[in-house]
Design a protein that fits this description.
This protein has 123 residues and is an all-beta fold. Helix content is 0%, strand content 48%. It starts with a strand and ends with a strand.
Length: 123
Amino acid sequence: VQLQASGGGLVQAGGSLRLSCAASGRTFNSYVMGWFRQAPGKEREFVAGINRSGGITYYGDSVKGRFTISRDNAKNTVYLQMNSLKPEDTAVYYCAADRGMVGRTTAHDYDYWGQGTLVTVSS
């Protein structure tokens, strides 16, 4: 599967952005999907994940209550709604697809990656 992330940009602290990740192919609903982010000089960090049907979601501690992951299997797209953004949310955001188990939060568990979209939050 090929993944294309979009929706990044510059936003003020407290603002919102919605990221999208469009997947190619007809097997999108066979993948667990996730969002990760990587800030300069830091390791890639798990942000959010969603199971194949969209009924189970899980989040990294730093974004709980502010970010929401969702998916539309008819459109082969996964979303990340980001509210109450903080300067520390500044990073390149990546979507990823996992053929394996629901709930995994480590980057090496994911099989396919998008190219990343930059989110910059100004203070």
